[in-house]
Amino acid sequence: MTAPIDPPPAPGALHPDSLAAQALGWVDEATRAVTPPIHVSTTYLRDADNQYRSGRVYARADNPAFDQPEALLCALEGGHQALLFASGMAAATAVFQALQPGDHVLAPKVMYWSLRNWLMTFATGWGLQVELIDMTSVADVQAALRPGQTKLVWIETPANPLWSVTDIAATAQLAHAAGALLAVDSTVPTPVLTRPLALGADIVMRAATKYLNGHSDLIAGALVTRADSDTWQRIRKVRAQVGGTLGSFEAWLLLRGMRTLHLRVRAACASAQRIAEHFAAHPQVLAVLYPGLPGCQGHDVAKAQMQGGFGGMLSIRAAGGEAHAIAVAARTRLWKRATSLGGTESLIEHRASVEGAGTPAPPDLLRLSVGIEHVDDLIADLEQALAR
Ligand SMILES: *Cc1c(COP(=O)(O)O)cnc(C)c1O
Prior knowledge:
This protein is of the alpha/beta class. The chain folds into 2 domains: 2-258, 3-Layer(aba) Sandwich (Aspartate Aminotransferase, domain 2); 261-387, Aspartate Aminotransferase, domain 1. It has 14 helices and 14 strands. It has helices at 16-21, 67-77, 88-97, 113-125, 138-144, 168-177, 190-193, 230-242, 248-258, 261-280, 299-305, 321-331, 351-355, 375-386; strands at residues 2-4, 26-28, 81-85, 104-108, 129-133, 150-156, 181-185, 203-206, 221-225, 285-289, 313-318, 336-337, 347-350, 365-369. The strands form 3 sheets. A 7-stranded mixed beta sheet has the order 3-9-8-7-6-4-5, sandwiched between helices. It is globular. Residues 87-89, 92, 112, 115, 156, 160, 185, 187-188, 207, 209-210, 219, 221, 341 line the site of pyridoxal-5'-phosphate (PLP).
């Protein structure tokens, strides 16, 4: 068993960086190893008196490989319990699958594309009433809530691919007054910059594929809850029974990635801020979308609910339209043309091509995921790609 061995410092005595760097300081009891072993067993021995005192029965539901990464996530989010999933989508959809047919849910018009797609096809097909609204407007949220019938408000902030900002605390208050839970897709800010549970959210979802792991080499997701609830117990059952369970090796890789989370996120934030400022007044750039720029939507809210930076994601709108935007992406050498985000390597993507009809992305928009390369190299590469 990997477990805390030395008496841990008093709760709250350590900064989150210290908790992450040592993955809570757990040590394997059998070997004194400072990194955990990888357990691959799918099944666990039943005691002779027919009990399961280990607390584990079968690996679709229980896996010792989850204990340490889930405990670390819980500590970083300030939550009651965490659950790892086989992907960010498996985590997000588990929240909706825990609801009942006929339940009303609010979700943003601007959000992670695959989830929006799933909501408007499968979730509605199963009888959820999904309403997409402008989550940047507190008044719109208030008007759309149906007290007693709205069971969940889903938000994402800053939201793909326009980096629109939603006020977590204000939305939580409205949702709770109407008897609904608030869930936040907080993949982009990571727990380094935003802790939605402390702002009143009930559940936080993270695509661990992105910054938490940070090396573009595994697909994983996580949910963390502020408190136990009927909905949370149903979410646990969805994972155990539907089986969107993470593999042991992936859980181990994720824990390794999280040890450097704070370093990577701070580096990406600092570079993203510099890139945003550099290209804000560039003649070949129509607009820079980044919550860290004073003129951008939601800057003041972001300043209040994000600590230490505005994230590593931004978008630029190329002057000269769609064809020019695609040509700019084609000319980059250091920036890699690929989807996804949150890795050590910087990525550039023409979002409208990916999202297709109905996308909120203007045709000239290029989404940038800033990695941890030297910022001067990233700026120089974009400069040469933008030059006509
Ligand atoms: C990637 C991503 C997801 C989905 O995560 P997967 O691990 O790819 O399933 C959800 N939300 C956001 C904001 C993402 O970036």
